[in-house]
Amino acid sequence: MTAKPQSVEEFQARLREVSDGLPKRMRQCADYLAANADRVALSTVAELAAGAGVAPSAMMRFCQILGYSGYSEMQQVFRAAVSSGFPDYASRIASLRDRGADSPSALLAEFVDAGRGSLETLANKVDARVLDQAVAALAGARMIHLAGMRRAFPVSAYLAYAFEKMGHPAMLHDGVGALQQAASIREGDALIATTFTPYSGETVDLIQSCADRGIPVVVLTDSPLGPVQSGSVLTLPVAEADVGAFRALSATHCLAITLAVAVGAAKSGGG
Amino acid sequence: MTAKPQSVEEFQARLREVSDGLPKRMRQCADYLAANADRVALSTVAELAAGAGVAPSAMMRFCQILGYSGYSEMQQVFRAAVSSGFPDYASRIASLRDRGADSPSALLAEFVDAGRGSLETLANKVDARVLDQAVAALAGARMIHLAGMRRAFPVSAYLAYAFEKMGHPAMLHDGVGALQQAASIREGDALIATTFTPYSGETVDLIQSCADRGIPVVVLTDSPLGPVQSGSVLTLPVAEADVGAFRALSATHCLAITLAVAVGAAKSGGG
DNA sequence: CTGAGAATAGAATAAACATTCCATTGAGAC
DNA sequence: GTCTCAATGGAATGTTTATTCTATTCTCAG
After folding, report:
1. φ, ψ at A47 (rounded to 5°)
2. Which of A193, B105, B151, B225 has its Cβ near the most Cβ atoms within 10 Å?
3. What 3 state SS string does A89-149 have?
4. Which residues of A touch B40 (CB under 8 A)?
5. Is B198 or B144 the better-scoring residue by pLDDT?
């Protein structure tokens, strides 16, 4: 017997399970729900059916195909997800802002909001294939070099910490003493460069020289194009929301740590 | 005339506006809504009224006091807020996870989710008064010293960047060459220390010695208690969610940049 | 071409719901 | 002490919404 999905994740899985061999109208329901799962929590069965282009009764039957007793039972799953994902965040942010337009609390509310937005955008916009390629390219490297100047430096520094903790050879190009660490990049190595517009000249030069030599390069940046286009350069764009002239870089750090841990997992898992 | 609040922020403001001189039951409604605004989107009047300990009709009257024609109109405001704050994030995360349990995409989903959760917790749990005190203490300092080892180092590095960009004197204790930078902390300076359990001995010692000398210290840490309790130490706890053995530090970076920008604003605004 | 079966849409029904009305209570004024 | 008016609770009402039932259409096998 097909048990009713108790969470949004289970729901999505169940949706794919049944998606093959479905009559036309049922398939319309499945497609629409897959693309508009977020609307279930607040819509009526009539609205949803209209959106999917089917009769309300068709949507009802589809709910039962998924294992629920009816629409209401299915909706409860999504309502639970919404209320946990929206505890009292919005009102809390509002009350922080209310402490005064220029108060630290209001500023924190801005940064938290920007960070949350950036993380959501990251989840929505990331190209999973490029991410997979980046992990594969880095997992094959003997040593990983980390470059990032000024505001990008903390990202590289955290990558250095993560790789050290996992016992993976990594070198942070920190520019101490203005030493030319670029010369230490050898065949078989790889580079993770973090840079934001306006791109730092040194970082761009480093990316370019590695690209010319065929060294794999992964670039974390804020523009879809990235600073350098080349076959061996994989660009992972991160749209980071600004608060005034500053950014919290929440999404960039998130992507960076993902990259590091995924490479670590690939190394230990793959041999 | 009192127009109906069109957003959650306006709603909160209106709530405070009318909160004085309200009959007993109306006051109960106001108090309950202020504390449970997040429930409005999904609850019925009956549920809400029961929660507030009043009759459903009393809740109806209160909606009209706020300027709405009835409960449904008020609820629409909250529903709009929910649906904008929950675009298709949950389903997107689910689809990233579905690319395979150990895939980079699934890992990214975990970190994004953890980051979002941490930011929400930060907004909910931060003590606005302590934050205000911290900004005031730092704004009065001639030079701000920044300490943080290992995984806390990126936070300090980003603070150093932010203060530099705002033209505020700041010194990053980066431990290059194992120089004893502690000796450069003078009367009239302040310290921002970032440290996570298990606390780094050097950072704890630095905090302690500053505290003993009466130097203002602001500590960003993951435990409510913090590494050192003392009159001149202001602890700002940040609960950061783990993914396996790693954290993205989204919330900590967020709090750090807030601190920096707030101090910059206080300096330029107050003198 | 015809019959059987599923699939679908539309109408009917029943439940839940917001909303309104009215009787009762409580507080303050004269 | 009583009269008045605001405040309140509970029942009544009309609307919305999920759900079910049934007639019709469509599809495929024989």
Report:
1. -60, -45
2. A193
3. HHHHHHHHHCCCCCCHHHHHHHHHHHHHHHHHHHHHHCCHHHHHHHHHHHHCCCCEEEECC
4. none
5. B144
Chain B neighbours among A 227-266 (CB < 8 Å)? 243-251, 253-255, 257-262, 265
Identify whether residues B37 and B151 lie together within a single domain: no
Residue A98 lies in a domain: no
Q: Residue B256: pLDDT above 60? A: yes
Determine the distance from the C-alpha atom of residue A206 to the mean position of all C-alpha atoms in its chain, rounded to a whole number: 26
One domain for residues B116 and B161: no
Q: Are B239 and B116 in contact (CB under 8 A)?
A: no
Which of B79, B6, B2 is closest to B41 using CA atoms? Answer: B79
Strand D atom within 7 Å of A46 CB: yes
CA–C1' gap, A93 and D8, in angstroms: 34
Strands (E), chain B: 144-147, 170-173, 190-195, 217-221, 233-237
Domain match, B142 and B180 both: yes
pLDDT tens column, A187-202: 889 999 999 988 888 8
Choose the final residue of a domain: B56, B85, B114.
B85
Res. B153 pLDDT band, cuts 50 70 90: very high
Instruction: Indicate whether B202 and B129 sit together in one domain.
Output: yes
Please tell me the predicted confidence (pLDDT) of residue B225: 76
Q: Please report, for the domain that includes residue B57, its CATH number.
A: 1.10.10.10
**Residue B174 forms part of a structural domain:** yes
Burial class (CB in 10 A: 0-12, 13-18, 19+), A257: buried
Count of domains forming chain A? 2
In a domain, B2, yes or no: no
**Tokens 């799953």 found at:** A77
Residue appearing with tokens 């959501």: A120
CA distances from B178 to A237, B175, B181 (A): 36, 5, 9
Whether B249 sits inside 8 A of A158 (CB atoms) is yes
Among A85, A116, A146, residue at a domain's last position: A85
Classify residue B3: in a domain, yes or no: no
Residue of A47, A45, A77 whose CA lies nearest to A61: A45
Within this chain, do residues B153 and B194 fall inside the same structural domain, yes or no? yes
Q: Domain containing A60: what range?
A: 8-85
Which member of B92, B107, B245 has the closest CB to residue A123?
B92
Nearest nucleotide (C1') to alpha carbon of B53: D9
Residues of chain A with pLDDT under 70: 1-3, 84-92, 94-95, 98-99, 101, 175-184, 268-271
